Amino acid sequence: MIRKTVATIFLITATLLVAFGQRYTVSGVLKDASNGETMKNILVALVPVENTTQSITGFSNQAGFYSVTAPKGRYILQILYMGYKTVTDTIDLQKNTTINYELTPNVVITDEVVVTGQAADHNVTSAQVGKMEMKIETIKALPALFGEVDVLKSIQLLPGIQSGGEGNTGFYVRGGGPDQNLVLLDETTIYNAGHLFGFFSVFNADAVKNVEITKSGMPAYYGGRLASVLDVTQKDGNMKKFEVDGGLGLIFSRLTVQGPIKKDKCSFIISGRRTYIDALVQPFLKPTSPLKGTKFYFYDLNAKLNIVINDKHRLFIGGYYGRDVYGFKSSTGRTNAQFRWGNAAASLRWNYIINPQLFLNTTFSFTNYDFATTMGLDVYSMEMSSGVRDYSLKTELTYTPSIPHEFRFGVQYIFHTFFPNKMAVDAGVSDLSLPNVDPYYAHELAIYANDEFDLFPWWKINCGLRYSHFEFIGPFTRYVFNDQGVRTDSIVYRPGEIIKQYNHLEPRLSMRFQVAKKTSIKVSYTLNYQYLHQVALATISLPTDVWMPSTEIVKPQMGHQVSLGVYQNFYKDMFESYIDAYYKQMNNLVEYKDGINIQDITQNADQMYVFGKGWSYGVEFFLKKGLGRFTGFIGYTLSFTQRQFDDLNGGKPFYAKYDRRHDVSINLGYEIIRNKLSVSAVWVFASGNTMTIPIGYYFIAGSLATEYSERNAYRLDPYHRLDLSLNWTIVKKKRFETSLNFSVYNVYNRKNPFFIFFETNTNFDTSNPQNPTFDMTTKAYQMSLFPILPSISWNFKF
Amino acid sequence: MKRKSCDLFLFFVMAFSLIFSGCQKEIEVDLPEYQNKIVIEGSIENGSPAMVIVSRSMPYFSTVNLETLLNEVFIRDAVVTITSSTGETENLTLSYTENSPIYFAYMGRNIVGEPGKSYTLRVQCGESEYTATTSILEPFHLDSAWLAFADANDTMPTSRIQLTDRAQTHDYYMFQVKVHGKKLYDRLWVTSMPVAFDDATFNGQTANYEILRANPSTLFVSQMTDEELKDFYRVTYRHGDSVFIKTSLIDYTAFQYWSAMTYQLAIGQNPFMSPAPVPCNINGENVIGNWTGFASTFDTLYYE
Fold first, then answer.
1. Predicted pLDDT at A255
2. Quick one: pLDDT at residue A411?
């Protein structure tokens, strides 16, 4: 079946090639002239000199590689990209030609820039639905908490991408859970993208080159998750000159060093951050302060080596390492606790330009996320650890036989190791020995083909097929229980023995119908399977949340999504807009059983789950002004998200935790003095999260017990907030640049609900048994995290 | 050893509250319409008569005083009957008891719990009838119990027990403690930490556990001074304490109930935890509660 499909695609491609006759290709790599960084998604146009036929265009890929094929003849080659000087070159295309270009940044951005690259009408012309890019410059200009910009928080301003709230880096795309987002850093999966309990993400904006998110119409080269792909690319390192930049802020400091090891041949970048608020505060605390003895910090380090072997071969070696540490010791020393968690990721990427039409990208990557805690109370101590580790190899061939036509074929293999909660207890004189908790091992394989082409000039198709294969393998011990929860047997699987395997085909289709020059209609359908699951016990995402594979008990999550959108640019591409509606159906969703003890090591971790389905639908509106001194965007989402589990909420449907009826983001920026002074404002509004709320109480076991509502039957107050920032570039010279950022977070001091809680006060006076008194009242309180918070951060570059 | 799963999350909550100085305000919460439920809490133990408390659940924000407690919460006109598996029947009578914070319970006199027997409870409240059956297992004796000191300088010990589990049965243990004292809460048996556990990790083995003194009902804390609070919440013992440890074997249904109920009580009003339903072994409409048979033995420790 798969063989037939792939063969058919190749046959169609070959037929098209023959049909086009004598054609040649101009190809090469596009780089930024200031630092040698490769540039992706740049429009390259060949305008015929001798006739009036339409120009032929193509885009550079993630490695900066472009390839445009046209009939032989003379052409004007134009490369146009906002913020860069236009490249114009004359080409006599009599054979396949390779030309690399370096684009020089414009010092002054004028209002009159009319034709641009990706930023202009890509929105309307591309077939892909639901893919959005956020430039790192845009992210850096946004107001931010404590003045520290954050990639994940910024991306959550886009419609359809919902924030979990303050203190939660988990993000929610079109009704999907946080585990349904594939987060990639240089093609390496990051399993926990949060620092400091989610107040910041692991992505250091100084080391990031590009951020893209795909929330629908997911092409076949992405897979393994139902909801979205967040693809973050690290900078490659300046090929031209050494550069140091950094910043001092209230929470942490940053430093990035990059430069050529050999000019235009090899470069490096190292970027690090470290928080210090805990160290600064400690000397000023009273000995009785509850904060005394508490340490809490994170640090991370990004590094990359970029080697141009020759015009055809290029190597990238990249890595990330980050840690969060939280330690607590009581004043008496009897109680102590330490939590440590973090990601480590490394990748080796090889780009090979086989010929002007064939590009090969091969990546080997490693990623590890681990969480460990130790807690002590007198002689009792407990250690608990969990994590996930992947080794992955992916190779992808991009074939560009003609423009507009791009065919991608790839294979990806991942070896997963999951470490569920493993516990060790030292209970002083205890002679208890706890059983070993086996890791879970799994193979994941995907083979895909994705083709993007114009069937007619007005009808563009992006279609693909992904075959995914998953094997849950031994060694593993499966416990067998009877109806009363008594373990009656164990099944022991040998190393490498296949316990359960799944095979699925995932068709993907997106189509764009150009109904007018600046108006298009886009439709998409995708079917995705997800073999990995992360289930949260608490009502917020925590670093303790464990990743688990599909097993013979846990079936792969499955998601269908259809979307229909109208995209329109107007006023010479000054404004871009869209309206996009979607419906999503998800099966085999996973939650913990009610009241489960996740530290129970007497059963397999996957025996603590229950399974159900979910659905989500909504409509998104987006309007953006990307050009000129006054820029900004408005996004609005209306959505409905529900879940239904046989074993939860009495089998009745319930709204998901992050069912968000209304979600609004408004971002406005204005450059008061060009390249000197700019202001920016962000206003967000979101319907409150749902929660399960106490509705009654009763006396039992000598205490007061609570009776709860149906699951998530109550909705918190809405969340809204205005942030302002002012960026002042004090010095901007060729060799030195310094700027100050003033931010005010939550300008009108809105007390947004972080959570609500209840307090019951009882006055039970039994001092006179003959005449006792009793009074009891219960009140509700709302906890908010951040009031109005002004901040300042200083940034430098030399 | 099992620990309550909320331990870890409590640390996170603590971390949140320590690091970020949040602000708090009182809010009005508009609750859906509430339907009261009948709450039945009954037990019978080897060597003791049955005790059943029948009350009514109340809307969450109701204000309760002694008058409403006695007239609206507590149900005094129920007809409560137990029948043993050997055919004996007894109507329980409403009595004043010092062993409940709400003072009134339906108490038995003639039928005393015996190991190996089962008991059926029947409660008639107005038009509604509720029934449940439980049984008393064979009691189990600890190998030993002692006060455990951290080191030679430690003056605040906890208690530890050693038991040898029976290999041929799957056993569910429950521990309760109390410290002899004058206060009402000193007279109540309180579930210890851990509350109830099974022998899955030590079937047929000898094991020892730390039995921490748990705090009794939080109903008592509002008027306490800081010193009294510290004393109330201590998990350790002090000079002069007489420590009573009750070891009970319970059946699977009761184990499920007590595990869920203590989870529910433990998460209390913690906003980060997902509440879970508490199972009920009582048949009838709109009812909460449990009818438990305890097979209990007692040990006493003196800290002189």
1. 92
2. 97
Q: What is the Cα–Cα distance from A249 to A740, expressed in whole angstroms?
A: 10
Q: How far apart are CA B233 and CA B216, in angstroms?
A: 8
B residues 159-178 near A, CB within 8 Å?
160, 170
Query: Is CATH 3.90.79.10 correct for A2-116?
Result: no
Cα Dmax for chain A: 110
Answer whether A290 sits within 8 Å of B18, measured CB to CB: yes
What is the mean predicted confidence (pLDDT) over A474-488?
Answer: 82
Give the three-class secondary structure for A51.
coil
Q: State yes or no: pLDDT of B153 exceeds 70.
A: yes
CATH number given to A231-759+783-797 = 2.40.170.20
Cβ neighbours of residue A51 under 8 Å, at least 6 residues apart?
none
Going by the DSSP 8-state scheme, the letter that residue A82 receives in this structure is T
Mutate to test the interface with B, among A383, A700, A752, A760 (most CBs of B within 10 A): A700
Contact list, A167 vs chain B (CB under 8 Å)? 16, 20
Per-residue confidence (pLDDT) for residue A198, from 0 to 100: 67
Residues of chain A with CATH 2.40.170.20: 231-759+783-797
C-alpha distance from B88 to closest chain A C-alpha (Å): 27
Name every residue whose Cβ is closer than 8 Å to that of residue A235 and which is 6 or more positions away in sequence: A37, A207, A208, A209, A258, A269, A304
Asked whether the beta carbons of A191 and A367 are under 8 A apart, the reply is yes
Name B209's Cβ contacts closer than 8 Å, sequence gap at least 6.
Answer: A427, A430, B1, B160, B161, B163, B194
User: Could you give the residue range(s) of every CATH 2.60.40.1120 domain in chain A?
Assistant: 2-116
d(CA A592, CA A599): 12
Band (pLDDT 50/70/90 cuts) for residue A12 is: very low
| pLDDT at residue A239, as a whole number | 86
Question: Cβ distance A209 to A236 under 8 Å?
Answer: yes
- Reference A213, options A233, A228, A226; nearest CA is A228
In a mutagenesis test of the B interface, which of A281, A609, A776 is the best target, namely the one with the most B β-carbons within 10 Å? A776
Residue of A nearest to B157 (CA): A378
Residue B222's pLDDT is what? 61
Distance CA B55, CA A695 (A): 17
Q: B37 at the A interface (CB within 8 A)?
A: yes
Note if the bond before B277 is cis, omega within 30 degrees: no
Chain-wide mean pLDDT for chain A? Answer: 83
Q: Are B174 and B261 in contact (CB under 8 A)?
A: no
Q: In sequence order, which residues have a C-beta less than 8 Å from that of residue A228 and are 6 or more positions away?
A: A161, A173, A174, A176, A180, A181, A182, A213, A214, A215, A218
pLDDT of residue B269: 63
Contact criterion met (CB below 8 Å) for A321 and A342: yes
* Cα distance between the two ends of chain B: 30
Query: CA distances (Å), A242 to each of A254, A404, B228, in order?
Result: 17, 38, 66
- Which residues are bridge partners to A171 per DSSP? A163
- How many C-alpha atoms does A88 have within 13 Å on its Cβ side? 5
Q: Measured between CB atoms, does B55 come within 8 Å of chain A?
A: yes
Nearest CA-CA partner of A568 in A504, A605, A519: A519
Span A86-111, average pLDDT: 73
Of residues A295 and B257, which shows the higher confidence score? B257
Question: What's at A566, amino acid-wise?
Answer: V
Of B245, B119, B39, nearest to A700 by C-alpha is: B39
* Closest chain A residue to the Cα of B154, Cα to Cα: A378
pLDDT reading at A292 higher than 70: no
pTM: 0.81
Select the highest-mean-pLDDT range: A669-678, A707-716, B32-41, B84-93. Answer: B84-93
ipTM of the complex in this document: 0.85
Interval B35-93: pLDDT, tens: 899 999 999 999 999 999 999 999 988 888 888 888 888 898 999 999 999 999 999 99
